[in-house]
Structure formats: structure tokens, C-alpha cells
Amino acid sequence: MFSKSTLPLLNYDSFRLDGWVSDVINNKSSLLKYGVQLLTFAIKEHKLELIDEIYKKCMTYFKEDLMNNKSFLSIITSAMPLLDEYYPEYILKYSSETNMIIDSSFYSIEHQNKNLHLDSFFQSSQIANLSKSLLWTKY
What we know:
Layout lengths: L17 H8 L2 H17 L3 H17 L6 H8 L1 H7 L2 H15 L36
């Protein structure tokens, strides 16, 4: 809808332009640039469909390339205090999804020094509710 040269200036009212929002969400670099502000706007305005769309797009981009698209997770984590306040179910969902990704065989951590005398211990995965641990962010 908008070309790069005609994107409106970033402000609260620009998020009300549906075409602009769609362009931001569907463009990786725009989502990285404006994602935190857009998600914050969606939470404050209680736009559940937009929150869900941003969340899903961030997770999709991250899952496409786990090592190079980690920055999409920061869009979600930056908004966690607000999500905790208004939509804590997203924190549990995020915790669950990222835990499953890290525990998968596709996400591997290689040790730099193979001569370490300590071996890692296997621990079964647990889903943690991070909403209580975010209370400090309100102060």
C-alpha cells in the first residue's frame, strides 16, 4: 500500500492506518524497526487480533532461522511488562513455545572447549510461568 518513501511518520496515529500496519508486519526490516512500538500500541488499545498477528509473525520469522532471527523475540520480550498486565496468557505461550524450540534437535549449543571436566546434566523440560518474575519491571 505504501512505498518506502511514503510511509507515514511513526506516531500513535500512524498505527491506526491499517495498510501501513500490514506493510510493517509483512516486511522483516520494518517489523524489526517498528515492532516494539506497534505491539505496545496494540496492547494499550486492546487490539487482540493485531497482538496475535504480531506475535505469530515474530515467532514465524524466528523459527525460519533460529540463529539469525533472534531479534524478533526481542519485540515480544520488550512488551512483556504490558503483556503481563493485560494479557498474561501470551507470556505463558511465549515461554512454552521458546522452550520447545530450544529443546528441539534443531537448536543445538556447541561447546567451545571440549576438554571441560564438567559434563552437562540432562534435565527434563519444564514450562515456567514468567508472569510472576516480571513484577520487578513495574518499579
